[in-house]
Amino acid sequence: MTSTGTDYFRESYLEALRSAESLSTSLPRLRPDYGPEEIQAIDQETKDRLDAFSLRFIRLQDAMGRNLFRALLGAELEDTADLTQLDLLHRMEKRGIVTGVDDWALLRRLRNLLTHEYPDDPAKQADILNEAIRSAPLLLDTLRAVGRYARERLGMSDLPETTLTLPSP
Asked: How far is 123 from 40, CA to CA, in rounded Å?
């Protein structure tokens, strides 16, 4: 483990943690069962809450998928330059960080879908939002697993633990 590798990991983790804290503040203000009619007749306040949630979900998924996972391997002195996203996910699965490649693929797919508006398809908008809201705890749990792994396996006992609480279903 190199100082540079662990420093970059720490920075990446703290960035993801900030994003997770923002996402977790959005969740209690949302429901996982918006209908197409509600999406069509949405008031500005609800639209702002849904937009904030979407942006925060995208930001956290990006921070983890693009930076944090590679930074974790870098802290373990593993060369990630030639790793495909699938290789990276398999390494995270082997470490117990992602529950499965398919679960992360779902989070990535939702991230991609959230970047589009689908203004002419409120049913699709509702389906995407509802699935993302229901899947957000998986994203937060994955970050918890990264932190736990770093504290236990990389000796980073001073790494902040996430104290995020999720709303009851």
From this structure: 9
